[in-house]
Design brief:
It is a single chain. The protein has nine helices and eleven strands. The chain is an alpha/beta fold and 271 residues long. It is globular, with a radius of gyration of 20 Å. It is an enzyme of class 1 (oxidoreductase).
Length: 271
Amino acid sequence: MTDAALSPAPVKASPFNELEVLWVRHWTDSLFSFAVKRPEDFRFRSGEFVMIGLPGEDGGKPVLRAYSIASPCWAEELEFFSIKVADGPLTSRLQKIVAGDTVLMGKKPTGTLVLDALTGGERLFLIGTGTGLAPWLSVARDPETYSRFGHVYVIHTVRSVADLAYRDFFTREIHDDPLIGDEAKAQLTYYPTVTREAFENPGRITDRIKSGDFFRDLGLPEGFDPARDRAMLCGSMAMIKEAGELLETYGLKEGSNAEPADYVLERAFVG
C-alpha cells in the first residue's frame, strides 16, 4: 500500500462563515435587524450584498438568501435589515435568532449598488422601499459618498408609519457619527413617504416624482438632470421597474460595475 493511499482526503473548505449574532432589534411584527461579528478577512464595498442563512433542518442543505449589508465598508460589525415571513423558508426561522446564536454568511460579497457603478455627479438619490433601505444605511455612512456628491437624498417608501425603521437614525443619530456626522448634517436629506396611512408625504415615491410633489417638497427644480443627478434603486420589483423607467425619461442611463453610468439597481433582488 502506498503512502498516497494512506493519506486522508483533503477537507473541502466551507463556502460560508459561521458567525456569532451580536444583537437583534425587532422594529415591528414584520421587520427586524441584526448584526454579526465581522470576519477579519471579509472585505466589501458599501452597498454590496452577501448570502445569509441558517443550517438546514434535519441535516438538510443550508437555506440562504441575498441580503444587502447595512453597515459601511469600514464597520467592525455587519448589520442586516430583514422582513419576517411566517412560512418563509429562511425568515420564519431567522426572525427567532438571539444574541449568541450562529448564522451562515457567504464569503463573496457582490452587487451593483456601489459608487463604482456611477459616473460623477452633484446629487445622489438613494430610492428604496421596505427593506430596500438597507444598502442606503451602508452608502450613507461611507465618507466617499460625501466627497463625490454635494448632496445625498435617502428616500424611503413604506406602507405604515411604524415601518419607517431607522427614521430616528437618518433624522438625528447619523449627525453624531464620529466619521461622517458633520458631512451628513450638511449634505444628507431624509425623505420618507407612507402609502397606507396619513403622513406628511403620502403615497408612493414614484407617484410623488410624477406629480412633482417630490421636487417641490425638497425645493428642487422639477425633474432629474443627467448632467448632475445620479440614483440608486432598491426594493420592490414594481418600484424599481417604474422608477427606472422614470429616470430613463429624463435621460439617465443605467450603469453597472463594468460600465458606470447615471443610475443603478440591484438585479439580484428583481427576479
